[in-house]
Amino acid sequence: MKVKKGRIVVFVLLIVAIFATVATTTTQVWNNITKGLDLQGGFEVLYQAAPDEKNVNASIMSDAAAAIRKRVDVLGVNEPVITVEGENRVRVQLAGVNDQAKARDLLGKQAQLTFRDPDGKKILLKGTDLKEGSAKVDFDPDTNRPLVSMAVKDPSKFAEITKTYLGQPIPIYLDEEMLSNPVVQQIIPNGQATISGQESIEESQELADLLNSGSIPVKLEEVQSYAVDASLGADSLKDSLEAGLYALIAIFIFVIGYYRLPGVIAVVTLITYSYLVLLVFMLLDVTLTLPGIAALILGVGMAVDANIIMNERIKEEMRIGKSIPAAVKSGSKRSFLTIFDANITTIIAASVLFLYGTAAVKGFSVSLITGIIVSFIAAVGLSRLLMTLLVRSNILKSPGLFGVKEDEISDL
To answer: Which of 60, 233, 289, 324 could join 363 via S-S bond, C-beta 3.0 to 4.6 A?
Structure first.
């Protein structure tokens, strides 16, 4: 048969494009991935509502979490993870915190919402003076702009305050951070007030949530906490990446030595898989943790498994006397359902881990599911494409290129 050089050229260009992309952009992709506190150092603490707090539920704890998030912003932490667990717990994970003592002190204090005089010094009202859950987003009937409505428990006290400070601002603080600076437009005798000046519905909703959280004084007690030093995180990351590199090298040596040409293609797909997983992590803003790296390496095993299944099917087809093109076509087809079933069952297991696992387990499951999907695309899609290009170029003549000896081929 005549060698089709065009397909060889496409094969070579595809390989060059893959390696060039990986070599030139991997560092940038890696640096843009959000790292968990176990990789870059940080602080984690689990809070629980104090036993003497009454009527605590998930909604109240959600309001408390909103107040905590506002405090976290003061620390300048990127991508904090603040989750409500059950009916009375809040878990806070802060990666990249430099001053952990400051973080502990800031998070440990009970949130204090206050309405102050124009100078911001004298406290006129506290969050406890607001009716619970009264703050909500509303709209100005004249301008249709968003505003926040609220109600106080003691209308006479509020009337006296608005009379004293008529035409002046009464700033609202959460701890020592100003949330809003509304101006008293009129005396309010009924305890029903509105706060205008927000630019969007989202901003109004955030203020309403903070007012509600401030009006529900939930005392939080620290249940457990741990800190990861930045240097320890860097060492963990270095050790994990080295372990992954050694595993990859061992896999590359095995698949090339045992499967020959299909092994070389498997190496290309594994490199592509690793790069694509990191790229997906960056694009989806996935927080990468040590369990996530473990899932990434496990995904390499899944990708190798898919390649091994396909290559073994191809070898079986050659041993019964089929030509290389026929064996590749039949073997690829026969292996597809096996690979698909294996990946689906693992995704189901990982989904259960995500639904019922802790934060670390969720991170592992997300990384595992992402890796499985990408490995399926790389192992089935890219491997088949590269193999098909070589087969149709008519340069593959010897079964030995697939690790099949001549005496293994049946004469039937």
So the answer is: 289
Q: Is the pLDDT of residue 351 over 80?
A: yes
Q: Are 197 and 180 in contact (CB under 8 A)?
A: yes
Q: Do 295 and 215 share a domain, yes or no?
A: no
CATH number at residue 341: 1.20.1640.10
Tokens of 28: 């940038």
Number of neighbouring beta carbons within 10 Å of residue 53: 16
Q: Which residues pair with 90 in a beta bridge?
A: 47, 84
3-class secondary structure, 96: coil
C-beta neighbour count of 285 within 10 angstroms:
10
Show the domain range for 54: 42-224
And the tokens for 82?
């603040």
Is 117 found in the same domain as 58? yes
Choosing from 205, 224, 243, the residue where a domain stops is 224
> 166 versus 99: which is more confidently predicted?
166
Helix (H) or strand (E) holding 233: helix 230-259
